[in-house]
Amino acid sequence: APLVRFRNVRKSYDGLAPAVRDLSLDVAAGEFLTLLGPSGAGKTTTLMMLAGFERPDSGDILLEGRPIARTPPQRRGIGVVFQSYALLPHMTVAQNIAFPLQLRRVPRAEQADRVARALDMVRLTGLGERMPAQLSGGQQQRVALARALVFAPRLVLLDEPLGALDRRLREEMQLEIRHLHKQLGVTMIHVTHDQAEALTLSDRIAVFAAGALRQLGTPEALYDSP
Ligand code: ADP
Ligand code: ADP
């Protein structure tokens, strides 16, 4: 069975034209799937529904065969890196990363150990006591990634995680995300409007336009065919 299943999912905001219309999509465990498409295509709405932040008007979203509940995503084993879900500025880097562990009531001693390992994983060893404002943009994005990975999630949702970075840093972080995906074997669903980024990172690409899934396939199948 797929890890994630969307079945005929529809969502509109306040009587406007549907942001997502009749979406059916399966995501396999271990897969790196990118939702690609222009601004307004419905990618973020799709991810927000999977995170449990928005509810579909109709249709089903299943995680391991069960409907998505409206509890914090971390409680359901989902790590999120959203642009709108920034670091807490009054907390240290380590406290930010430990936050989902506290939500999940992980014992204190284990928290410190896991935070230290997550910092190593994103190459920020020793920076746990810093405040977010003392880090560069790229480092802050790594902290957000560490926070999403710290509790060994079964699913990680990434919404334009590299959007604010310059090109060189962006390419460096693409390689790191790819490496982490392989190393951890975790399922990742990633949103971008950047076609090159989708091609670099993904096992499969879902192309969205005007709220609809238009194409679905491997990078090769989508872009190498005549
Ligand atoms: P994408 O992530 O592909 O840019 P979105 O899912 O953010 O697309 O948006 C899809 C459509 O839904 C757009 O028309 C957008 O304006 C609208 N939309 C998104 N979020 C809201 C909201 N909170 N309230 C009203 N309309 C929204
Ligand atoms: P408290 O809420 O008791 O004051 P903290 O806010 O200092 O605890 O820390 C929150 C969590 O982050 C704790 O689980 C702690 O073990 C962990 N932590 C704090 N600083 C570090 C660090 N530099 N490296 C690794 N883990 C840390």
UniProtKB/TrEMBL annotation:
<keyword id="KW-0547">Nucleotide-binding</keyword>
<dbReference type="GO" id="GO:0015847">
    <property type="term" value="P:putrescine transport"/>
</dbReference>
<keyword id="KW-0813">Transport</keyword>
<dbReference type="GO" id="GO:0016887">
    <property type="term" value="F:ATP hydrolysis activity"/>
</dbReference>
<dbReference type="GO" id="GO:0005524">
    <property type="term" value="F:ATP binding"/>
</dbReference>
<dbReference type="GO" id="GO:0043190">
    <property type="term" value="C:ATP-binding cassette (ABC) transporter complex"/>
</dbReference>
<keyword id="KW-0067">ATP-binding</keyword>
<protein>
    <submittedName>
        <fullName>ABC transporter ATP-binding protein</fullName>
    </submittedName>
</protein>
<feature type="domain" description="ABC transporter">
    <location>
        <begin position="4"/>
        <end position="226"/>
    </location>
</feature>
<dbReference type="GO" id="GO:0022857">
    <property type="term" value="F:transmembrane transporter activity"/>
</dbReference>
